[in-house]
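User: Structure tokens for both sequences below?

Assistant:
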Amino acid sequence: MQARAQAIDQPKSFKSILKKAKLDHFFYRCDRKKIDPEDLAWMLERVKKYIAQYGTGSPSAIEVLSVRPQNMTEIEAFERIKKECRLEPWIDKVELVFCEWASLHTDPDWLGKAFVSLVVGTGPSPYTVSTHKISRKKDSQIPSVKTRGFKMHTGDLFVLDPTLPHSANPCTNHYGSLLVLMQVTELFGSEQEKIELFDRYPPAKDGYPDAFCS
């Protein structure tokens, strides 16, 4: 009985948590959030105004716009979004990240942080967001690549280690496709920070029937 009690008290590791969730690397979608599309409208409007003034550059250009709600309607909408997504109550601004598509890339400057992203809009087609984990066994010269992808609709929330190679593309090519994300960063350096982040933003309970892995 004493040995069993010690085993139960043993702290869980982040690696074991991922394994239990059947995740081979840190990228997953959370349960769909219950967000009124009207609460997202002010952010989409900011993006439209930016594009009208500056354009979008090349289709693969990733634009980042830092925004704060500016009136009571926007503030109330933002508070509802924060509550539904379980964001920190003190957050008063976010980054809007948008592109037509994003080629495979990493964000090494964000080492020690994780991206928590809410899909604000996609245009006519949902998007596929994918990550690729590259590893090499000691006895092999051939790298192993594990790919995980999710179909993302407006209202989806996903969590990503930005140092993983990742990409985004519309599921079906349509004129007017534009992926718009409301993105915040969370601490993702120490083992405890990783566990706390996973506990706060748990993966979806549906088992990802639309995901693809290889």
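Moving on to the next sequence.
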Amino acid sequence: MKLKALAVSLAFGAAVAAAPTFAAPAMDSVKIQEMVSASALSAEELVVELIAQYPELAAAIVEAVVKANPEAAAEVTKAAMAAAPEAAADIAEVARVAEVPNSAITEAALAAGIDPTDVAETPASGGAPEAPAAPAPSTPSFGGGNGSPVSGN
């Protein structure tokens, strides 16, 4: 009896494993671009709507929306960071490529409640930004005030 139950279980398991699954179609940049070009929504509304549906593609969505609406890049960045704060660093990078000013990226982060250092631009060397060197202290002048040295008298 146990052997028959085992055989039925194995057959059922194999049938379930072989059954086709109906997953949502994969989303890629071409499909995102098609959705962006066909939409009647504003750029900000569109980026929020698409990120709500595909949060894992936030940066690609921002890239497509900004490409279609370059004049709204700063506003799209702000809306995207609010919609997907976990992707803020990637969104900031896409915004920089689209030439959104760093001040607008920082404002978008602050408006979304994100620490601006999380989206700050890193130097090309990959290290932490260097602090400007402090000017060397000036040496006191022992002159008479007019630029001439004091006499040895």
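User: Anything stand out in the second?

Assistant: The CA atoms of residues 143 and 150 lie 5 Å apart.
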